[in-house]
Amino acid sequence: MLYRLLQFIATILIGPIFRLRVIGRENIPDDDGYILCANHKSNWDPVFLAIIFSSKIKFMGKKELFENKFLAVFLRSIGVFPIDREGRDLKSLKNSIKLLKDGKVLGIFPEGTRTHNINRKNVKDGVAYIAIKAKKDILPVEIVSTYKPFKKTYIYINEPIDVNKYLNMKSKEAMVKMSDEIFNGIYKKQLG
């Protein structure tokens, strides 16, 4: 309920300030149970995604955000859950897979942090691992913005990445190739 209220307020207040322009809405799956994967340059990115996607997105957030008790309560109340970016966080991985199998939309920034450098090495294999284990597709989204008020922000929703083509590959090979495709999907416009 809090998520929907904040989504509504953000749509009215923040959407017009950043002049959100969405390209590729037809690529959004009709059913839930997919991974929403986007590049990440600003703290505004999850807000932009929450505005344009009608489905409630369950975002992963770095565990450090949950060190402040008040912020932790707020984040959990809107469906954000912590992940330890330093190693294999089995609890968060299992939670992610369960959310997907329950038909939820999982929001992940595959670079693991905000970054201004477009570099394949920044994309972690964890997203591919989750997609393969849950057998769920990935929807790559590219956010192109100056993050300055009253300048246009473009959100490109690219074609989904079909997990099925990776299921018969060896695990490491599948994760590397899928991560390559994720990188190309979240930077499609900027890479040309």
From TrEMBL:
<comment type="similarity">
    <text>Belongs to the 1-acyl-sn-glycerol-3-phosphate acyltransferase family.</text>
</comment>
<keyword id="KW-0443">Lipid metabolism</keyword>
<keyword id="KW-1208">Phospholipid metabolism</keyword>
<keyword id="KW-0444">Lipid biosynthesis</keyword>
<dbReference type="GO" id="GO:0016020">
    <property type="term" value="C:membrane"/>
</dbReference>
<keyword id="KW-0808">Transferase</keyword>
<protein>
    <recommendedName>
        <fullName>1-acyl-sn-glycerol-3-phosphate acyltransferase</fullName>
        <ecNumber>2.3.1.51</ecNumber>
    </recommendedName>
</protein>
<dbReference type="GO" id="GO:0003841">
    <property type="term" value="F:1-acylglycerol-3-phosphate O-acyltransferase activity"/>
</dbReference>
<dbReference type="InterPro" id="IPR004552">
    <property type="entry name" value="AGP_acyltrans"/>
</dbReference>
<dbReference type="GO" id="GO:0006654">
    <property type="term" value="P:phosphatidic acid biosynthetic process"/>
</dbReference>
<keyword id="KW-0594">Phospholipid biosynthesis</keyword>
<feature type="domain" description="Phospholipid/glycerol acyltransferase">
    <location>
        <begin position="34"/>
        <end position="146"/>
    </location>
</feature>
<dbReference type="Pfam" id="PF01553">
    <property type="entry name" value="Acyltransferase"/>
</dbReference>
<keyword id="KW-0012">Acyltransferase</keyword>
<dbReference type="InterPro" id="IPR002123">
    <property type="entry name" value="Plipid/glycerol_acylTrfase"/>
</dbReference>
